[in-house]
Amino acid sequence: MNTIDNLAINSIRILSADAIQKANSGHPGLPLGSAPMAYELWAHHMNHNPANPEWANRDRFILSGGHGSMLLYSLLHLFGYGLTKEDLMNFRQVGSLTPGHPEYGHTVGVEATTGPLGAGMGMAVGMAMAEKHLASVFNKESYPVVDHFTYVLGGDGCMMEGISSEAFSLAGTLGLGKLIVLYDSNRISIEGSTDIAFRENVEERMKAFGFQTITVEDGTDIDAIGAAIEVAKADTEHPSFITIKTEIGFGCPAKQGKASAHGEPLGVDNIKAMRETLGWQYEEPFFVPEEVYEHYSRLAEEKADVEAAWNAMFAAYCDEYPEMEKLWEQYHTAPDAKSLIENEALWLTKDKAEATRSLSGKMINILKDIMPNMIGGSADLAPSNKTAMKDAGDFSAENPAGRNLHFGVRELAMTAIGNGIMLHGGLRAYVATFFVFSDYVKPMARLSALMGVPLTFVLTHDSIGVGEDGPTHEPIEQLAMFRAMPNFHVFRPCDATETSAAWLSAVTSEKTPTALVLSRQNLNPIPGSSKDALKGGYVIDDCEGTPDAILIASGSEVDLAVKAKAELAGEGKKIRVVSMPCMDIFEEQSAEYKESVLPKKVRRRIVVEALSDFGWGKYVGLDGAYVTMKSFGASGPAAKLFEKFGFTVENVVNTVKTLF
Q: Among 462, 464, 414, which residue's Cα sits nearest to residue 435?
């Protein structure tokens, strides 16, 4: 290793250790051990341009071990992505550009929010899938306009988490040859040696998944690391997994190789000793010699030249294939919400009773012809979720142009992959499973919301209407769980019109993911349903004058509320029925609109929903009542279950009467 490379690597280590010490919080172990591999990758193998972080054909880099964020922040600072030394000094402080874990959309150059271990692995698989699909759509002979790698760096914790196995199993099946995993194998976790809980042969597991496996015995040998990366890049038939054996906390004599290096500052004396061990001559915290900055600047200029060459090729491509330039713009431009909402072909007719999952399937097959970049699929449930796009092909190792994704029974990885596809850019993705299995979906859906990634979730079989499969398959608390999440829209439509509204809201959302919670059983069309469903809640069946009581319902229970209203009207009671397909969007409306739908002076309010009542209190108030689930479900025909649990006209009517 020459002197400038050594200085460049040690600069990463010093900046990381100093920032963590100043914050008195953080994880120095990964940055110190992984600095050589990260430097070698970013400096000599990865195509990226600090002057244009959004370059479409850049290689992607995801730090799956997000706790080691100072590694990434140091790289971004040194390569000139705009992070200043002051930003590094404000590590983990309120409002800083250097939060404890990397946050997409907050810090330039961060490709994904990686907090939960393994999540970055799943999102990297999604990015590699997006690259492979887009290459099949756009590349022409002599014009590889989509041609880049996805690199992900993670450690033992990422490999222990089940999501990595789910995601890598699929990656191998799909032959994602441009996915390269850098495994920081330091054999240490928070509790000590990984031997206490993790003795498997990771490389053999990855071989079984279909990966090319490569091992670098010395994590400080950048020549060996570079050679391994080039071997990985040369095999475009298989994803590659590079085990790089490192020492956690490298360079700190008292901490190197120990669990104590993982998640706490090294201490002033230990940092001084580290400087001596590394031969770092400068005592001043955060000091980097000018020759190092100049070295990184030269590297950045070389990266800019790579983009310039691509830009020239892309310009020639557009001249030769103007129709592809137009298609590229369509793929990389957000859909126009106004034109979609005003397109009457996108509003389904409500001429018969139909399950909202089936209506959703119709919407998918209308939208896929309007939005050629729409891609998605299900966790082995497409026939039940109704998520298959007709005549769109199946994405596979053999057919990367296919738009139907088959995730297998892998809900957690599916959602991370969906995030990765969206983060990559150019595609609009949806994922699907049964609503009850959204428990497996939720951790990565939370990252969707946190990142502002408008992924669409198709979640079917939405209540005890599942029927004979019984309580293991009947969701109860899941709707409340998703409604509780910030920046997340949950739609539970009652018929064709509301299903159209749900899909249009989802595909035009810019920063908010959307869950479509859909019925297995047929639902009657509701005469009063309208495009006002786009407001989240609206009056679907009203009365003359001020109502005596308001029934609020969603999904399959809207029809029940309308029927109960009719019976109560026959007894002289004035009842308003409010459909609330999306509580989250209703909350975004003006105070005046919300008052017009749910006037404060009407205190008799009854919620009718075949799920948990948790979260409805703000609308029901102290004087209201609930017709909801108070327990888990049961096994039996759906109609019998609705009767057993009180979802009948008689019970709704009687519940309303208790308030008078």
A: 462
Sign (positive or negative) of CA dihedral 308, 309, 315, 321: negative
Angle at 110 between CA 311 and CA 458, to 5 degrees: 95
Confidence of residue 1 (pLDDT cuts 50, 70, 90): confident
Q: How many helices (H) and strands (E) does the chain have?
A: 25, 18
As a whole number of angstroms, the distance between CA 230 and CA 633 comes to 55
Mean local confidence (pLDDT), 197-220: 98
The three-state secondary structure class of 105 is coil
- We find that the CATH architecture of domain 337-518 is 3-Layer(aba) Sandwich (3.40)
3-state DSSP percent of the chain in helix, strand and coil, to 5: 45, 15, 40
**Taking 80 as the threshold, does the pLDDT of residue 284 lie above it?**
yes
Structure tokens at 189: 């976790």
Residue 3: band (very low, low, confident or very high) from pLDDT cuts 50, 70, 90: very high
**304: pLDDT strictly greater than 80:** yes
What are 105's two structure tokens?
Answer: 């959309």
Three-state secondary structure call for residue 580? coil
The encoded tokens of residue 68 equal 């080691």
CATH fold group of domain 535-657: Rossmann fold (3.40.50)
Q: What is the DSSP letter of 558?
A: H
Which one of 103, 247, 411, 474 is the catalytic residue? Answer: 411
Residue with the two structure tokens 């957690």: 412
| Residue spans per domain, the chain | 3-245+281-304, 337-518, 535-657
Count Cα neighbours of 486 within 13 Å in the Cβ-side half-sphere: 4
pLDDT for res 547 = 98
Dihedral sign (CA 414, 415, 418, 423) = negative
The CATH classification of domain 3-245+281-304, taken from the options 3.40.50.970, 3.40.50.300, 1.10.274.10, 2.30.39.10: 3.40.50.970
Is the sign of the CA dihedral 86, 87, 93, 96 positive or negative?
positive
Q: Three-class SS of residue 628?
A: strand
Question: pLDDT at position 2, please?
Answer: 83
CA distance 257 to 251: 10
The pLDDT of 434-460, averaged and rounded, is 98
Q: Which amino acid is at 298?
A: R
Active site residue 276: no
What does the pLDDT read at residue 654?
98
d(CA 460, CA 458): 6
**561-595 confidence digits (pLDDT tens):** 999 999 999 999 999 999 999 999 999 999 999 99
Decide whether 3-245+281-304 matches 337-518 in CATH topology. Answer: yes
Helix (H, G, I), strand (E, B) or coil at 437: helix
Tens digit of pLDDT for each residue in 36-57? 999 999 999 999 999 999 999 9
Q: What is the mean pLDDT of residues 229-236?
A: 98
Q: Could you give the CA distance from residue 382 to residue 554 in angstroms, rounded to a whole number?
A: 24
Task: Give the angle subtended at the CA of 553 by the CAs of 548 and 557, to the nearest 5°.
Answer: 120
Round to whole Å and give the CA distance between 24 and 31: 16
Which residues are 241's β-sheet partners? Answer: 181, 213
DSSP assignment of 445-513, as one string? Answer: HHHHHHHT---EEEEE--SGGG-TT-GGG--SSHHHHHHTSTT-EEE---SHHHHHHHHHHHHH-SS--
Indicate the average pLDDT of the chain: 98
Phi, psi of 538 (to 5 degrees): -160, 165
